[in-house]
Amino acid sequence: MEYDVVIVGGGPAGLSAAIRFKQMADEQGKEFTVCVLEKGSEVGAHILSGAVIDPIALNELLPNWKELGAPLLTPVTDNEHWVLKENGKTGMPHFLMPPLMSNKGNYIVSLGNVTRWLGEQAENMGIEIFPGFTGAEILYHEDGSVKGVLTGDMGVAEDGSEKDTYMPGMELHGKYTFIAEGVRGSLAKVLIEKFNLRDGKEPQTYGIGIKELWEIDPAKHKQGTVIHTQGWPLDKATVGGGFIYHRLMKCSVIKTTRQSGLCWRGGGVYLTALVPLMKVVFSRFPN
Ligand SMILES: Cc1cc2nc3c(=O)[nH]c(=O)nc-3n(C[C@H](O)[C@H](O)[C@H](O)COP(=O)(O)OP(=O)(O)OC[C@H]3O[C@@H](n4cnc5c(N)ncnc54)[C@H](O)[C@@H]3O)c2cc1C
Predict the structure, then answer these.
(1) pLDDT of amino acid 259
(2) 144 and 277 together in one domain
(3) Do 166 and 221 fall into the same domain?
(4) pTM of the prediction?
């Protein structure tokens, strides 16, 4: 199938690019075909959800996002910074924090919902979205330039055999092919290697993090409050910290995250260990 633009990845980046392409074509009165491949069962299914976002890009992309019903419903009203110790916490005044820790004008959102909403806007503009389709392979022209992508086969059993629902992958050709797979994308890795895109660049850094949505006692819910933590249980040589976002919901739901750089000393940190760790850390500071 031939398109003007083929985009791999229906996350915030891929969908925003699709919308912008369509807007530019409309401004010039041109017919322009754009498709987006999303390997999740639906747009938003693979998006790590709770987040605090700066609406600056949305203001530029869809200035009327409020009228369009964008799910940015909880403005940040308060910023707290806690330095944790094993047996207590100290609150740091907000004015001592670097500007990047300021969330003035930002919103606490479900990024999955924002992405779903972006998908709806894209479809309303005539962009074709293919949920459940993976970009599996890059296709090249004879001169070595990128021609498009091959989607993954569908209906393959775990042992590799073809089920009744088997559908071979299809070729999608684009005048432009956009890879918007998020971090560590499999096609991006191939292209980075083939076209030496990392030459002369800083090495990539990695972190590990985990998020949970908690339903809490409404009496303790402080809608719009963003809390950042640092310190315990990490030692001074380990970069990391925690986030707690009080989001608008019918019941009181907060989003908690613990993140750590991959530079701790001693043994490894496992995701399975981070979940109970998060519960211990935040339950010690119930207020
Ligand atoms: C723990 C954590 C906390 C964060 N908190 C915040 C926050 O509070 N505020 C904030 O602004 N940002 C936050 N971020 C960053 C934010 O999540 C990313 O910047 C944003 O999601 C990047 O968007 P993206 O579209 O580039 O990639 P992604 O959101 O990763 O989307 C990529 C999409 O492409 C799909 N995909 C990937 N490969 C393929 C393929 N080969 N074929 C088809 N589909 C494919 C995936 O299923 C996914 O839907 C956080 C990130 C993490 C990890």
Answers:
(1) 62
(2) no
(3) no
(4) 0.89
